[in-house]
């Protein structure tokens, strides 16, 4: 299995990069063999501490417990703001690019400081204390960043909920972590369309009696309902607030944020991240993986509602004193040229996006790209799902003009920061390959018995030892934490992904091996969509699997069995789609609804998803063993009526 398609790091790039091949190997060796030395050095280099740690790291992967920089004291916002003010007060911290191409704003570090301090004081005045949870449900505007940092400044814990989630999904997340304050905006604006955030929040808050304060940013001035007791206009509250709020002294292991993500079972889990280790790995990877240099304009197109937005729009770049661009809109509005117009307008040097966006823009035609000036670009990145070689080639040739290395970064909400990725000056690229581990990361491939696979091979991707930005728990449910991540393979963190290791020792992610879908880079549990579908009174049973989709990577294919006497109809199909939108959000719309008279089950009643996945993918040659099925004839029927051919 030799991989001939190796792309050397473009020459000019390698000679000026922070880390070349030899340095990578030496630093990686040190990070594994002398972790005390390695991490002490990096922690001093990247972070300002109020008082030092007593121990670098302890962990136990039988239980998942981990502690980094134990007893160290720091505040994340001092690192992301205060310490830059003396030298960079007037430098831009955030470039905001509005949905409307005519709208943009430049926020300096001084302005960022003022806004964050004022909002921190507002939160305090509403009774928010260290350790309290604050829910942030915002569009992509600078106030979303202020809200995260203001929460961190006073030692509270933010839980950002993606603005595309429905009121029900928002309500579940608010209740699960008992947030008592919500920060939102009147409406969001995406692709020229309004998103009714405040109305959604109102609907959610009807079921959240503990929420005493809802701070509302004025974005569109759309009409909103107002609850005098609970609702506060952001601009009015800020106007009266003092512009300095002393940072809370946080312990390295105090929680920084909760971020909900989907797993293979049940409701989304509140992934808990703590302070120092998270910040360090976010900042280090931002510098080394993107080869960030002082003054670079850096743009990550993610939404702050996802972990990519947390680590690579907010914490990593701001900790490094970078210029970080946040974009309110969508890649195709006003037209498919928008990303590249923004690159040209703001002279973006580093650009980080998802394969799904690349594929959809690729489909629109090259002129949308080539009509723009992208000469400022130096490096491209991708994240969220495996990138197919065609999309990689297009990104490399058409967008980056074969001048910019591409970093294919594999990581997860739970890992907090990059785990597998080429360092651009050090590791030659292979289209579709996440290549090598970042410093301190020890990946292994395990066979089904949990034995480590040596050399080239394919297996379950697991991690052998703790890394600084490791998940520290599932909020409020440590049992679920251990069960999900540390029980499948004793003594390892299990990622839920499969991977292949080639002859160079490089890792190729093959996708999830559990019941988690990756739709346009968004994680979704099949169980979540199924629970939504069965809420409909006419539905007896539903089984959801992923199917191939040209743009989204994976589409949602739902097999639905109706109650006896009920008939399929277009009307019912629409009702089922809207139930998914209501329960989860527009990202959960099934692409296919297959009316299934029955589902293939084992005699013990377990749905054979393997078969359903194959039928949905139209891969019929190899259905595997069907002899354990209670009624093998259901399979023939499903095949005959399959929706993808
Ligand atoms: C950061 C993020 C995590 C899952 C992960 C994997 C997939 C992410 C990838 C990738 C192949 C890459 N994934 N990056 N697969 N190559 N470069 O996306 O976090 O939303 O938690 O998703 O996404 O399957 O397990 P999250």
TrEMBL record:
Its cofactor is Mg(2+). It holds the Pfam family ACAS_N. It catalyses: acetate + ATP + CoA = acetyl-CoA + AMP + diphosphate. PROSITE patterns: AMP_BINDING. The modification N6-acetyllysine is found at residue 606. Acetylated. Deacetylation by the SIR2-homolog deacetylase activates the enzyme. One of its GO terms (biological process) is acetyl-CoA biosynthetic process from acetate. Residues 528-606 form the AMP-binding enzyme C-terminal domain. CDD domains: ACS (cd05966). Keywords: Acetylation, ATP-binding, Ligase, Magnesium, Metal-binding, Nucleotide-binding. ATP binds at residues 384-386, 408-413, 497, 512, 523. GO terms for molecular function: acetate-CoA ligase activity; AMP binding; ATP binding; metal ion binding. SUPFAM superfamilies: Acetyl-CoA synthetase-like. Residues 82-464 form the AMP-dependent synthetase/ligase domain. CoA binds at residues 190-193, 308, 520. Residues 24-80 form the Acetyl-coenzyme A synthetase N-terminal domain. Catalyzes the conversion of acetate into acetyl-CoA (AcCoA), an essential intermediate at the junction of anabolic and catabolic pathways. AcsA undergoes a two-step reaction. In the first half reaction, AcsA combines acetate with ATP to form acetyl-adenylate (AcAMP) intermediate. In the second half reaction, it can then transfer the acetyl group from AcAMP to the sulfhydryl group of CoA, forming the product AcCoA. Belongs to the ATP-dependent AMP-binding enzyme family. This is Acetyl-coenzyme A synthetase. It comes from Porticoccus litoralis.
């Amino acid at each position: 299995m030799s991989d001939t398609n190796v792309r050397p790091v473009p020459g000019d790039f390698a000679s000026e990069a922070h880390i070349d091949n030899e340095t990578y190997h030496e630093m990686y060796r040190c990070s594994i063999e002398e972790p005390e030395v390695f991490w002490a050095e990096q922690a001093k280099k990247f972070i300002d501490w109020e008082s030092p740690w007593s121990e670098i790291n302890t962990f136990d992967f039988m239980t998942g417990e981990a502690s980094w920089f134990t007893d160290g004291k720091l505040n994340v916002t001092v690192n992301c703001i205060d310490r830059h003010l003396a030298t960079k007060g007037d430098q831009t911290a955030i470039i905001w690019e509005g949905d409307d191409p005519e709208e943009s704003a430049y926020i300096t570090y001084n302005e960022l400081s003022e806004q964050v301090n004022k909002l921190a004081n507002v939160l305090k005045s509403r009774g928010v204390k260290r350790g309290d949870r604050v829910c942030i449900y915002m569009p992509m505007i600078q106030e979303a960043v202020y809200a995260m940092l203001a929460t961190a400044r006073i030692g509270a814990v933010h839980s950002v909920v993606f603005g595309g989630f429905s009121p029900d999904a928002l309500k579940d997340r608010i209740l699960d972590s008992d947030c008592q304050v919500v920060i939102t905006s009147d409406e969001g604006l995406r692709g020229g369309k309004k998103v009714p955030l405040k109305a959604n929040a109102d609907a959610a808050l009807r079921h959240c009696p503990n929420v005493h304060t809802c701070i509302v940013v004025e974005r569109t001035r759309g009409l909103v309902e107002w609850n005098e007791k609970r609702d506060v206009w952001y601009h009015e509250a800020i106007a009266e607030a003092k512009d300095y709020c002393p940072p809370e002294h946080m312990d390295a292991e105090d929680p920084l944020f909760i971020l909900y993500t989907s797993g293979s079972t049940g409701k989304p889990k509140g992934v808990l991240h703590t302070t120092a280790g998270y910040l360090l790995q976010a900042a280090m990877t931002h510098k080394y993986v993107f080869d960030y240099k002082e003054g670079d304009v850096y743009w990550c197109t993610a939404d702050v509602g996802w972990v990519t937005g947390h680590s690579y729009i907010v914490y990593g770049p701001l900790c490094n004193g970078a210029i970080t661009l946040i974009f309110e809109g969508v890649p195709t509005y006003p037209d498919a040229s928008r990303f590249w117009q923004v690159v040209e307008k703001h002279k973006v040097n580093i650009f980080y996006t998802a394969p799904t966006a690349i594929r959809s823009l690729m489909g629109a035609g090259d002129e949308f790209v080539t009509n723009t000036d992208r000469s400022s670009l130096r490096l491209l990145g991708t994240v969220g799902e495996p990138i197919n070689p065609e999309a990689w080639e297009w990104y490399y040739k058409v967008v980056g003009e074969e001048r910019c290395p591409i970093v294919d970064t594999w990581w997860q909400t739970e890992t907090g920061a990059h785990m597998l990725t080429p360092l651009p000056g050090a590791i030659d690229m292979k289209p579709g390959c996440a290549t090598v581990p970042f410093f301190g990361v020890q990946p292994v491939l395990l066979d089904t018995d949990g034995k480590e696979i040596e050399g080239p091979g394919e297996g379950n991707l697991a991690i052998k030892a703790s890394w600084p930005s490791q998940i520290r728990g599932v909020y409020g449910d440590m049992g679920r934490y251990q069960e999900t991540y540390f029980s499948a393979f004793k003594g390892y963190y299990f990622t839920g992904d499969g991977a292949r290791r080639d002859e160079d020792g490089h890792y190729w992610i093959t996708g999830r091996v559990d019941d988690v879908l990756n739709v346009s880079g968004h994680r979704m549990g099949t169980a979540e969509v199924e629970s939504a579908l069965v809420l409909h009174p006419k539905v007896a049973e539903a089984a959801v699997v992923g199917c191939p989709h040209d743009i989204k990577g994976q589409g949602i294919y739902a097999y639905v069995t109706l109650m006896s006497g009920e008939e399929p109809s277009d009307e019912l199909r629409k009702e089922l789609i809207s139930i998914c939108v209501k329960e989860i959000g527009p990202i959960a719309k099934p692409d296919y609804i297959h009316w299934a008279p029955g589902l293939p089950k084992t005699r013990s009643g377990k749905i054979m998803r393997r078969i359903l996945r194959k039928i949905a993918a139209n891969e019929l040659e190899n259905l595997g063993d069907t002899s354990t099925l209670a009624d093998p004839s259901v399979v023939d029927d499903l095949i005959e009526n399959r929706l993808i051919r």
